Amino acid sequence: MLESEATGRYYIGHTQDITQRLQRHNTNRVPSTRHKGPWVLVYQEEFYSRKDAAYRERYLKQLKDRAFIDALVRTSR
Predict the structure, then answer these.
(1) Beta bridge partner(s), residue 67
(2) Which of 29, 52, 56, 57 is the most buried (most CB within 10 A)?
(3) CB 33 within 8 A of CB 74
(4) Distance CA 63, CA 73 (A)
(5) Cα torsion for 24, 60, 66, 17, to the nearest 10°?
(6) In 3D, which of 62, 47, 40 has the Cα closest to residue 14?
(7) Are 71 and 28 contacting, i.e. CB atoms less than 8 angstroms apart?
(8) Mean pLDDT in runs of 10 for the chain (77 residues)?
């Protein structure tokens, strides 16, 4: 999970290479986050399969619960 330092908004996604993906977000190469950064990694989870990671991503996005997301971020710091 990434957080925009400019807006405080979160971006939820999954990837196999978090370093490369963060760089893509911060160099405006991802349309959904372009010109909304800089972005910082604030929370991550590891999964055995891409399918499991995609399921978790979908679950978190469907929640639309800022308090729950904030709690996840707080517990990871």
Answers:
(1) none
(2) 57
(3) no
(4) 15
(5) -20
(6) 47
(7) no
(8) 96 96 96 95 96 97 91 90
Contact in structure between 12 and 60 (CB atoms under 8 Å)? yes
What are the φ and ψ backbone dihedral angles of 41, each rounded to 5 degrees?
-75, 125
Q: For residues 21 and 64, give the distance between their C-alpha atoms in angstroms, rounded to a whole number.
A: 23
Q: Residues 43, 34: contact at Cβ < 8 Å?
A: no
Phi, psi (rounded to 5 degrees) for 54: -65, -40
Q: In the chain, where are the structural domains located? A: 2-76
Residue ranges of the alpha helices (H) in 1-77? 18-26, 50-63, 66-76
